[in-house]
Amino acid sequence: MSARTLHVIRACTAWLATLVLFFPLFWLCLTAFKTELQAISVPPLLLFTPTLENFALVQDRSNYLLYAWNSIVTSFGSTALGLLIAAPAAYSMAFFRAPGTRGLLMWMLSTKMMPAVGALVPVYVLAQLSGLLDTRIALTVIFAMSNLPIMVWMLYSYLKDIPREILEAARMDGAGIWGEARHVVLPLGLGGLSSTALLCLVLSWNEAFWSLNLTSAKAGTLAALIASYSSPEGLFWAKLSAASVLAIGPIVVLGWFSQKQLVQGLTFGAVK
Amino acid sequence: MPFLQLLGVEKSFGVQRAIKGIDLSVEKGEFVVFVGPSGCGKSTLLRLIAGLESIDKGRLMLDGRDITDLASSKRDLAMVFQSYALYPHMTVADNMSFSLRLANVDAATIREKVDRAAAILNLGPYLQRRPGELSGGQRQRVAIGRAIVRAPKVFLFDEPLSNLDAALRGQTRIEIAKLHRELGATTIYVTHDQVEAMTLADRVVVLRDGAIEQVGSPLELYDRPANRFVAQFIGTPQMNIVAAAALPALQTLGSRAGPTLPSDGFIGIRPEGLQVKPAGGGAIPARVELIESLGADTLIYTDAGDGLQMVARQSQRTALHPGDKVGLEVDAAAMHCFDREGKALRAGG
Amino acid sequence: MNRFMPRALLTPAVATLFLWMIVPLVMTIYFSFVRYNLMQPGALDFIGLANYEYFVTDPDFAPAVVNTLVLLGSVIAITIVLGVGLALLVDAPFPGRAVVRVLLISPFFVMPTVNALLWKHMMMNPIYGVFAQVSRTFGLTPIDWLADYPLLSVILMVAWQWLPFSCLIMITSLQSMDREQIEAARMDGANLPQQFWFLHLPHLARPIAVVIMIEMIFLLSVFAEIFTTTGGGPGNASTNIAFLIFKQALMGFDVGVASAGALFAVLLANIAAVFLIRMIGKNLDR
Questions:
Q1: Shortest Cα distance, chain C CAs vs residue A223, angstroms
Q2: CATH number assigned to the domain covering A63-228
Q3: pLDDT tens, B46-62?
Q4: Do B52 and A163 lie within an 8 Å CB cutoff?
Q5: Cα(C128)–Cα(B321) distance, rounded to whole angstroms?
Q6: Quick one: pLDDT band at residue B349, thresholds 50, 70, 90?
Q7: Nearest-CA neighbor of A158 among A199, A112, A118, A123?
Q8: Residue of C nearest to A94 (CA)
Q9: Are chains A and C touching, using the cut-off of 8 Å on CB pairs and a minimum of 3 such pairs?
Q10: Domains assigned to chain B
């Protein structure tokens, strides 16, 4: 078998596998534009006139906008809160490295490794006692804490990559610590900052465990909203698809841009 | 009063003593080169002067002031880093003017100084480019320009040429020499390349294992090395070192030339101090191993028995071939004598 | 100033993380030794190890452990094998490779609840789902996935979602592989399977280990998919440890027992974490 044939087979197999794996998402998007009847038609329809009615109905039926707003607030809020806490810590560990820095970083990462379900009971009890059940604040704080280790780790890696000599050059040029931070670290670290923020955004938006358990009508995020579709109320697949597409759309696209950060963040840097 | 003075400077990293008590004086306007093998501490010493590492013991004086504990940003020193360390997000002009902007100098003065430095280094057309768009040689000039603009008390260079290719290295070396003549600035230059040391320096400081082996002008170090290490470090190809016991013929020469040569000492002869004669002539019989014809010079590697290798250098071309038997004639006046520990022995000693 | 500032910068992160870790842990330990039912507030009586006993002797406990391990093992196996396979397929350039990568990675960014419902209704529904339609065209009776094979269905969903992760890691790792090594092997006469066995696989050993560790840690807490599709059932067929704890706590309202179970889950996670930490630690200083 010639190398060329092998190559063609390989490319075709890759495409085939990809299409098969992507199919469920494709089908989801397609269904979102069908009517309910079309959605459950046997055999399944591939060609049809698309309609936008489901997207409108989603809002009517289940107050989609409230849930979307909750998702937005909690994701962005937790990202901002997380960055506020993580950035100084990462700065300190990257530039003022001490013998205990490594151990500290490891400890921080280890807190991420504990299963969320281990904290479910106490957090639920605490939230109940403090009246914070079903509030956005509670979710925002919890998301921020969950993602904090990853954020510290990622920011630390990016800051560490700034060549030491450039900072020394700034020092020789007369910059004090604040000067260094403002003129060198910030501009050069901006890329890493946005990557970290992006990843945190994605992780918070998709977070389902706490949303499902700690919220109901008021502070539920999109994840919880979709879950509520699981109790069948007649034919509703097209609407479910529309709601799902709206819920996952922005994040999937965002995810396409944050692939590299993902690898670094989620493997805690173990794979380069 | 020397311009820059190191008094008993010591530095350790953990248990490792990197700098072991250095005393050095540098005059104003002098070009001093720190040279030595890897790990000898030359970069560490430079960084101690710059303030990028702290001095454990001893004092550092600059222009009458004790700057031992002063922060780098306040020492009025400029450093050209080995990797240039340019600010990648700033233009060339901004890179060069950064220190002036930090010092709140007015825009007009900044522009004037930057333009002047750019003119000297031929950086005019590149002022608005970013470092990423420049070649290695151009980046290096920007790094130098950044230092010139500040008109510091002392220029510090940390192996600035080691990242350049050979052709560029030679060219830039000459430019640095010309620059020093023009500006007359006190300069400390670190390199592992002894050619740079020989050509650029007013004085050379040879370092080994954190201590000074010898300080002197390049030719002083070449003609009168203080010990075997310096003798073999300076000069390419290396000086031929022979144990006095291995070639008794040389011992008689030695006692004719100068000090009494101890039988357990060493004799050193530079390649140009050996003359290759036909077999039978000269003091040392040998067999040609290898000929390197470099065009202007010819190097003849010989085996003088018992695996002892001697290199001879001559400016004429040779008709010899590997395997030929020859005799090596030694120029007694050019012989160096070292005792058992490697210290040089001079006439009258 | 010089020694104070680094510590000050670290304090918010360290303090908050410490609280986040310690407070729930202490509370959980405390609850595990008392009788506490959310429906019966009042004094909490100390009952020793009774909660632990109850959790471990719960008829759902052993199946839950088995299910957890089966879920873990299957998803890991599927994602590793397919992940490596896909990564090798995509390793060499071909037209549309960038698009393929983007498509391959998409499932990972889908919300777990959307993922669950997507499969439950679109794919696995015995009448209208895609699987059903496809099997009908081949003349087979459609399977009611969630009712007949609940654990397998959950495994499928979770594997579909995590495959991109494994894939991406393998792809990244393959990119850092020395091409000249492969060329040298080819000149030495190695065919494709031999190249794979002697060159690619050892290089991939490390990312495979990392993927296994990471997935172990995150898959122990698979929850949303089970919650939204099978509810742990039928019976306890698809209940894992995480869901069991949830059931005890928020459906049985028995905080004491749930806490005992939670500590058990934490113990399991710790074992996996120890290995991962050691592996990361080696990378940390680079």
A1: 6
A2: 1.10.3720.10
A3: 999 999 999 999 999 99
A4: no
A5: 92
A6: very low
A7: A199
A8: C6
A9: yes
A10: 4-229 (3.40.50.300), 237-345 (2.40.50.140)
